[in-house]
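in:
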């Protein structure tokens, strides 16, 4: 799977990954998700078809080098080698910080939605297309991709207030506003690093286990290109959610629930964490009735109060309650339930939408059942609650009506804490490596991206069978929830 020679060490991996990230960033200046309307500096302007193709090729080659370096780096960590993982993270992030938007036009939606709040529009009743001449953010609105132009915001008021602040500070000018959103993304990355280090360290995994957790969670190319490069707000949701879980593991479940409530007001899937915080609270009570009741009710009440308070303080209204399903109306090829529903619907009649809607609901019901089973196993002590949370989020993504490649990170960052070097962690690493190819630097999803992803996935699964790995003599304790198989290199 990982093409580097066995003689390649951690230092060479750091350099190779940095060169790969630099190639992605440079290629992005010609082939990235550039604004449709000219910006005054001329930094992010179309440069002709030949330059666009050359930029895309450079970005794909750089991405492949980054993925290969990341994979080899993980193998070395699994074999017990030591390295300064956060230094490597800095090297790999640095080129992407100054790049234009990469792999998605969502950042333009974020800016436009922040401008809508600032200009007094109902962000939950209309899309960025309502911004007109003279409105802040109108340039960003012109670059919003496809269906999202007329789609109301599915995000909570906490994120919209942050986007509003960026627009207010930058005046809505595209380039400064994009870099303002990237600062938020870097803050989210710092939150994830803090939470992952704390959770891994709190489980007695030693420095090797902490490094491995950071490898799968934050050095992951899927996170680098979509959170740092693409500035997706999923990073902020993950950082706040895991931060809340970290506090809960330290006995501060009320403050932890506050952070999860804030994460929910970025994106709603963070609510799954409340169930597992409740499990922690109930188990800490020794299974007494009062403790179980507190675990079932307390985190939800705290997070609910935060959601109400944040909504009232933001002044955006409670429209986010009705827009949680708007994304499901947009078909994405990675959603298995939507694909199956569409196919069955076309076979059974002229209008596939009713069948597709039923399949989507069945998928969500199945995800809910899996989440409850994992929570029960965590309550019984058969699986670590943090691992249960990660697997629950992976199941939710797999069965959701809309799936984007970076959604996998919801679960990966939690699984990394306890199971980065198990078979599950290895499979998630392969999925991450495959999904980076699904989206082009321009944000489109070309057919060859799916082909490349399929090839990487197939090769990766062969690698999982033939080259299993484990944490070897790195001071790591046993995995809590040891029904996951440890593997050896």
């Amino acid at each position: 799977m990982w093409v580097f020679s066995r003689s390649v060490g951690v230092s060479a991996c750091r350099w190779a990954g940095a060169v790969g990230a630099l190639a992605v960033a440079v290629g992005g200046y010609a082939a990235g998700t550039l604004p449709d309307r000219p910006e005054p500096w001329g930094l992010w302007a179309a440069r002709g078809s030949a330059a666009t193709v050359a930029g895309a090729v450079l970005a794909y080659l750089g991405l492949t080098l980054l993925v290969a370096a990341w994979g080899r780096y993980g193998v070395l960590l699994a074999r017990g080698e030591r390295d300064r993982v956060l230094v490597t993270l800095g090297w790999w992030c640095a080129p992407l910080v100054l790049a234009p938007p990469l792999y998605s036009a969502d950042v333009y939606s974020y800016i436009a939605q922040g401008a809508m709040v600032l200009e007094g529009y109902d962000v939950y009743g209309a899309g960025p297309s309502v911004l007109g001449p003279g409105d802040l953010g109108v340039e960003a609105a012109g670059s919003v991709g496809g269906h999202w132009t007329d789609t109301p915001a599915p995000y909570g008021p906490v994120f919209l207030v942050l986007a509003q602040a960026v627009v207010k500070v930058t005046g809505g000018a595209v380039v400064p506003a994009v870099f303002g959103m990237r600062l938020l993304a870097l803050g989210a990355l710092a939150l994830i690093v803090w939470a992952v280090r704390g959770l891994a360290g709190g489980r007695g995994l030693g420095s090797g286990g902490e490094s491995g957790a950071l490898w799968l969670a934050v050095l992951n190319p899927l996170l680098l290109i979509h959170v740092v490069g693409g500035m997706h707000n999923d990073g902020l949701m993950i950082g706040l959610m895991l931060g809340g879980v970290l506090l809960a593991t330290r006995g501060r479940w009320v403050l932890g629930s506050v952070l999860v409530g804030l994460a929910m007001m970025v994106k709603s899937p963070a609510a799954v964490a409340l169930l597992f915080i409740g499990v922690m609270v109930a188990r800490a009570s020794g299974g007494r009735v009062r403790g179980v009741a507190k675990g079932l009710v307390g985190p939800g009440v705290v997070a609910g109060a935060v959601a109400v308070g944040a909504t009232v303080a933001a002044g955006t209204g409670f429209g986010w309650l009705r827009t949680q399903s708007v994304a499901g109306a947009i078909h994405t090829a990675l959603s298995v339930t939507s694909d199956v529903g569409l196919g069955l619907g076309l076979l059974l009649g002229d209008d596939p939408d009713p069948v597709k809607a039923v399949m989507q609901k069945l998928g969500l019901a199945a995800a809910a059942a899996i989440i409850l089973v994992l929570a029960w196993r965590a309550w019984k002590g058969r699986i670590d609650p943090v691992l249960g949370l990660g697997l629950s989020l992976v199941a939710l993504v797999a069965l959701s009506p809309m799936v984007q490649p970076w959604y996998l990170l919801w679960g990966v960052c939690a699984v990394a804490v306890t199971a980065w070097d198990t078979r599950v962690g290895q499979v998630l690493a392969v999925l991450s490596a495959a999904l980076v190819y699904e989206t082009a630097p321009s944000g489109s999803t070309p057919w060859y991206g799916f082909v490349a992803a399929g090839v990487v996935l197939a090769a990766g699964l062969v690698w999982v069978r033939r080259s299993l790995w484990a944490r070897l003599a790195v001071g790591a304790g046993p995995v809590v929830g040891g029904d996951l198989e440890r593997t050896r290199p």
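note: The first helix runs from residue 10 to 31.
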